[in-house]
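Hey, resending since the last one bounced:
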Amino acid sequence: MANELSLQELIEKLHILFSGDKVNPDEVQEVMESYESKPSEWKQYANFDPHRYTRNLVDTGNGKFNLILLCWSEGHGSGIHDHADAHCWMKVCDGALCENLYNWPEHVDKEHTHLPESETQIMKPHRITEFHKNDVAYINDSIGLHRIENNSHTKRAVSLHLYSPPFEMCQSFDERTGKPIKCKVTFTSKFGQRTPFTVANKEISSEIN
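The structure tokens again:
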């Protein structure tokens, strides 16, 4: 891969790309692909939990984006979720991750998240893609909803996620009914330092990514 970037160089380039009012998603994709994952660069942000995946804030992008390292122990996965009208890039830094892509439930209003009590819809993925080390995936709400899973029972996985604009709330969907609930975004650590443990972190961190 030509022009391989270090993690610090990636962050610096992202700050430049997001310095204006408009961002070209293709340019961001190219920069994310140019980063070559090295554990020595991201291990300071990595925190694993035996019961759920963790979200570790790396950089806040001057308010324009969040760069987050997610750590997945064996068999861990997220809930089905949206991205609050944000762009989302996911780069696999170690191991392999599977993306299950879903359509929005037919009776859900994307703005008002309304699903009548009488209406339920079993959600089934229409596309399943496995991403390996240094692969980059992209999604936004116009593409659909997704669930990310580490399907390995012997190997952990790590991924680097870029959200723009950053968001504090998103929606998680019940796979059995299609009904959404609001979820607050929480972090296991920020800038390499563990955040205080709360019941909210325990309950919500497994819902989103």
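DSSP finds four helices and 13 strands in the chain.

Sorry for the duplicate.
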